Amino acid sequence: MAGQSRVPAKPGVPLVRAVARAVTLLKAFTSDRPRLTLTELAQIAELDKGTTRRLLHTLAVSGLIQFDETTQQYMLDAGIFEMASAVQVGRDLREIAAPILADVTGQTSTAAFLWVPHDGAALCLDRIRAPMLQIDATWFAVGALTPLNCGAGPRIVLAYVSQEERERGLSGELPRRTPFSETSAAKLRKAAGIIRQRGWELAENDFFVGLAALGVPVFDREGSFVAALSITSLTADIVKDGKPRHLKVLKRAADRIGARLRAI
Hints:
Layout: H1 17-27, H2 38-45, H3 49-61, E1 65-68, E2 73-76, H4 79-84, H5 91-108, E3 111-118, E4 121-128, E5 145-146, H6 152-160, H7 163-170, H8 185-198, E6 201-204, E7 211-219, E8 225-234, H9 235-238, E9 239-240, E10 243-244, H10 247-262
Antiparallel strand pairs: 1-2, 3-4, 3-8, 4-5, 6-7, 7-8, 9-10
């Protein structure tokens, strides 16, 4: 599971340009921008509007794209769900972890997340909503990718992936989501070492001011890093007297997931 990445292009094997362009349009939609106009899509794909419109029409006929006549915006259609149901990456891990994440949320009244490394970023493999909807971290949807500089879960991923994968993540965009977000690659490398030494990470205010997150690693039967488990809530729910709350709960949950992985 660790270090999932794209299959590299093979030398001498040409890519089908129309397919590559269509994929670029599909991947333009994210949890942060679920609706896009023709102009926005053309800019993202670096295509003229005519070509973009034809590709979008083809995708719409295929059931992958939907167009809202009222807002003049495009969005992903239900066909994407049909395809997503066949995705195998992380399926076993997610099925094993799901009831344990629910237990964590029940014990801590926080939102619980499961993260895996993917393409130099952290992929949210699963999430259990917090009971208090007003503090639910809705910006991390299942299937969303996020850089490795913010949040306890992604920073656990940063600490435990291979050096090559870590450098890949640090070479990409490191957004400053709040004044407390760390964007220095050098400081993040140092932080990764500290996280590995203590075995957990506490992140405060770096993704959203007023919220904190606590994360721990999950290891498989061979002791290899496979995922990060984290919780998020109001800072007072995660930190007490400068120390992380619920750390024992989170570590036990990670051990339970690991034990079930070893039993496969």
